[in-house]
Amino acid sequence: MIDQRTLPSTFTYISCWCALDVANAIKNMIIRGAPAIGIAAAYGIALEALRHENSTPGTFVAKLEIAFLVLGSSRPTAVNLSWALNRMELRWRGLSDSNNMKKIASELLSLAQELAASDVHINQRMGEIGAKLLPNVANVLTHCNAGALATVGHGTALGILRSAIDMGKQISVVADETRPFLQGARLTAWEMVQEGIPCTLITDNMSGHLMSRGEIDAVVVGADRVAANGDVANKIGTYMVAVLARRHKIPFYVACPLSTIDFSMPTGDDIPIEEREGDEVKGFGGSNWAAEGVLTRNPSFDITPAELVTALVTENGVVLEPSEEKLKGLITSELP
Q: What is the pTM of this model?
């Protein structure tokens, strides 16, 4: 996987050989982005199965059960992680020949590959649907990174912008830096520069000023988990952007694959919010700009209430003014 901690200055790959390697990569932000985390975890299970396919049945089961626990605890907020692990476990438990470890390992690898291919297809589908919501000429603000780096390919929020450009629309991206880990400055801006897509980088506290001057036409963000009522958990700072967008009557769109919707969470208040180490707030990349001894808070995500969301964009269509009733109807609907 690409080591996202070193971009854009250095492009390097990290190799993972077992579930623990993948879990550490997720925990340490080598890989990040809800869909990418989910698919990485699926491959982590497959790697562990392949690693122990010549073991005794008892050892194989024990190692795989540990792998599920280790990967499941790597990061708490993105529901795609548990969604992918549940899919992998259901496939494993559903196999009739429980003593054929080679077959089990092969089946789990095949499922991980299916989930990866499906992620690209879903992102492309969301891109086609969401692109139609944007004007033919638009400056679009995005927060954090919900592009190809955060998925298997194409991206969720950035996938919508890519698809709009493919349709011939003139889209300029405004990327805020996304403190404290700088995903917007380091990752979103890097993706856009690589593809020659017009992109302007701003600090997080500039978005309100640009909105007040009519320089932002729409906001498109991703999601790490969506509660049953439509509340959205996403990178810290998303709520602030949504409030500003509502104040200035700017549409606020959330790119949300169905795997991100969690009906076990009634509202956003029920979604666990990861709190990371305070050192991430004090500095970055070896530099420290904070006063020694100062206290910090570092919640990694926040909750945007459904009432601030203009629409959720999913692979099954667009949900305007999301609610639990609309989301449940979306799950059972046919593709438009």
A: 0.93
